[in-house]
């Protein structure tokens, strides 16, 4: 195996610039942060809460916290992983009970995800795709939150192992294990065969 | 054939996060193991399906709504802002401000005075000899020195305070005598007489006393 722990990432100049501008009252800095990370945070909240309304509410809570605390951001991690962490903490604090989380998610959410219309697809293709997506969403909903978070960050959001380690505050070994166990569980749930 | 790699190793292999050595080992194993190959392909398909999930766009009104809330939040009085505003409210031209300034000044003066008295009482302020003159020929006086406004003339190894030359010495005390120590504690400005050297004859409470300092 390679390195065991994630090395702290240096803040990029762009991150530094955004944080500084916000600190000195430049309102456009916050707008840029929302443009950059708005969809990312909304999708995280959507995957973890399962409901668009809830996701919008969690996104709002996340960005208000970002707005309030960005002045104290010292760049121990990248701005992206910092915003992710704030979002994840908002989601976690809202759903402390894992049982309630899973019940809520699996019973209501899977039907709510819709594939964006693709005019190039035929109605049959879209129906098949919708069915596949729904199955994946339902399977995701059955994962424990710790595995769902790791799989979401890696396979849907495309974060590196090091970034996931920063977001989750876990060692690289733990991140690897959670991703693998989450994927394996999904493999069984989706009855994926070669 | 090598031992089966676990799911974590296969998943990490899929992400190209294994070392070259481990990757080679896994690949050698996969060549001869259908089960592990099947597991790897299954994981690969899972990852493919997850990556195919569409990203949802946040509601269009969310951005504008957030900016409005953030602006309101920025104007909320935080503890620091309240303090700053409180400080800003103190108008130096108001009636309270001069009174406040006088009280602070008085406290400062009292503190400095008490500090000065304390320093004097503990004898940490050095009392310097004020002047020194050369001997006056023919008078018998070998030298003059002043300590705290009193002038002492040196006659044959004894420093005699001016005006006491003809008065009889009532008592001779050693410099370690408790009465001498008490008196010097009460009159710290005269503490420097010990720097004159030898014996010092002076008036203490109207009585002429000679203090004999031990030769160091």
Describe this structure in words.
Chain A is mostly helical and 194 residues long. Chain A has a domain at 9-94: Rna Polymerase Sigma Factor, Chain: A, CATH 1.10.1740.10. Chain A is 71% helix and 0% strand. Chain A has helices spanning 13-23, 27-49, 52-69, 79-94, 98-108, 123-142, 145-156, 161-168, 172-189. In chain A, helix 2 (27-49) runs antiparallel to helix 3. Chain A is globular. Mean pLDDT of chain A is 80; it is low at 1-5 and 113-118. Chain B is an alpha/beta fold and 216 residues long. Among the domains of chain B are: 7-52, no CATH class; 132-212, no CATH class. Chain B has helices at 7-14, 20-32, 34-52, 60-75, 79-89, 96-121, 178-186; strands spanning 132-133, 143-147, 150-155, 158-161, 171-174, 199-204, 207-212. In chain B, strands 1-2-3-4-6-7-5 form a seven-stranded mixed beta sheet, with no helix packed on it. In chain B, helix 1 (7-14) crosses helix 3 (34-52). Chain B starts with 6 loop residues before the first helix and ends with a strand. Residues 88-93 and 123-137 of chain B have low confidence and may be disordered. Chains A and B meet through helix 2, helix 3, helix 6, helix 7 and helix 9 of A and helix 1, helix 3 and helix 4 of B.
């Amino acid at each position: 195996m390679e390195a065991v722990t994630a090395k702290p990432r240096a803040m990029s100049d762009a991150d530094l610039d955004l944080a500084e501008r916000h600190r000195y009252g430049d309102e456009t800095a916050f707008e840029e942060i929302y443009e950059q990370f708005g969809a990312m945070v909304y999708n995280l909240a959507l995957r973890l809460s399962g409901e668009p309304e809830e996701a919008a509410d969690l996104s709002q809570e996340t960005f208000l916290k970002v707005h309030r605390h960005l002045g104290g951001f010292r760049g121990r991690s990248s701005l992206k992983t910092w915003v992710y962490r704030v979002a994840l903490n908002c989601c976690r604090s809202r759903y402390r009970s894992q049982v309630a989380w899973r019940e809520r998610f699996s019973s209501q959410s899977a039907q709510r995800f819709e594939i964006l219309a693709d005019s190039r697809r035929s109605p049959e293709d879209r129906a098949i795709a919708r069915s596949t997506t729904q199955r994946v969403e339902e399977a995701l909903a059955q994962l424990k939150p710790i595995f769902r978070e790791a799989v979401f960050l890696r396979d849907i959001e495309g974060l590196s192992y090091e970034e996931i380690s920063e977001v989750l505050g876990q060692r690289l070994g733990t991140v690897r294990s959670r991703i693998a166990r989450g994927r394996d569980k999904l493999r069984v749930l989706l009855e994926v065969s070669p | 054939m090598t031992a089966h790699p676990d799911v974590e190793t296969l998943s990490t292999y899929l992400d190209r996060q294994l070392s070259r050595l481990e990757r080679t080992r896994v690949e050698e194993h996969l060549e001869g193991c259908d089960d592990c190959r099947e597991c790897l392909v299954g994981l690969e398909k899972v990852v493919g399906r997850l990556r195919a999930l569409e990203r949802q766009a946040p509601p269009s009104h969310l951005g504008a709504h957030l900016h409005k809330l953030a602006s309101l939040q920025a104007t909320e009085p935080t503890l620091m802002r309240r303090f700053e505003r409180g400080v800003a409210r103190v108008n130096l031209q108001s009636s309270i401000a001069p009174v406040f300034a006088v009280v602070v000044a008085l406290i400062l003066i009292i503190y400095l005075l008490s500090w000065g008295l304390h320093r004097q009482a503990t004898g940490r302020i050095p009392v310097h000899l004020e002047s020194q003159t050369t001997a006056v020929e023919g008078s018998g006086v070998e030298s003059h020195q002043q300590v705290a406004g009193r002038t002492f003339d040196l006659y044959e190894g004894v420093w005699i305070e001016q005006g006491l030359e003809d008065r009889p010495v009532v008592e001779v005390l050693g410099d370690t005598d408790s009465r001498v120590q008490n008196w010097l504690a009460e009159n710290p400005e005269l503490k420097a007489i010990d720097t004159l050297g030898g014996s010092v004859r002076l008036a203490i409470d109207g009585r002429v006393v000679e203090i004999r300092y031990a030769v160091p």
